[in-house]
Amino acid sequence: MADETQTTHPSQQDQQQGQQQDTQQGQQTQQAQQNGQQDNETAKWRRLHERADGDLKTARGELDTERTARTQAEERAAAALRRAIAAEHGLSGDALEFLTANDEDGLTAQAKKLSGMVGQPGAAEGQPGKAGTTTNPAGNQQPSLEEQIAAAEKAGQRGLAISLKRQQAFGAG
Questions:
Q1: What is the reported pLDDT for 127?
Q2: Pair 112, 121: CB distance under 8 Å
Q3: CA proximity to 88, closest of 119, 63, 113, 111
Q4: Rounded distance, CA 160 to CA 40, Å?
Q5: Which of 26, 59, 97, 153 is most deeply packed, by most CB within 10 A?
Q6: SS (H, E, C) 113-165
Q7: What are the tens digits of pLDDT across the range 105-151?
């Protein structure tokens, strides 16, 4: 009988070891499935993140394009306003660079002042001076280039004075 107990006992040990191995394999399989699910979730979130990054880059590009278009439209409108105000005050296209204000009232004031300084039609109303003087010539007579330079310097219009001096230096006046 003692031999029978020993024989049964090893068999139970084998059975217990088999059950433990089965349990360990089951746990390993379950762990592998969980790892696989985590890998799938990670891959899913990575794809979503990449798609969101792409969408963000596209949106930023579209925003930059819109901003550029808006800026260009504003610049064209400002240039058109400068041209219209210059023409309204009898100024040539060369005078546009001296119209630097950011609003219509400022541009109009600059154009009036500039047209009065260069002696062209459209000078500001109510400016002092008598017809026929060098600052307010009679008829279509314009002041000399030297007088225009002096008037520009006196008025603090350095840019205009420099431009007139260039004309004088290159014989355009």
A1: 46
A2: no
A3: 111
A4: 72
A5: 153
A6: HHHHHHCCCCCCCCCCCCCCCCCCCCCCCCCCHHHHHHHHHHCCCHHHHHHHH
A7: 999 999 999 888 876 444 444 444 444 444 555 555 667 778 888 88
Residue 55, amino acid: D
130, 120 contact by CB (below 8 A) = no
Q: Which two tokens stand for residue 52?
A: 């969101």
Residue 81: CB atoms within 10 Å:
16
150: exposed, middle or buried (Cβ count in 10 Å: 0-12, 13-18, 19+): middle
CA distance 96 to 111: 9
Q: What is the dihedral of CA 128, 133, 136, 140, to 10 degrees?
A: 160
Q: Centre a 10 Å sphere on the Cβ of residue 64 and count the other Cβ atoms it contains.
A: 10
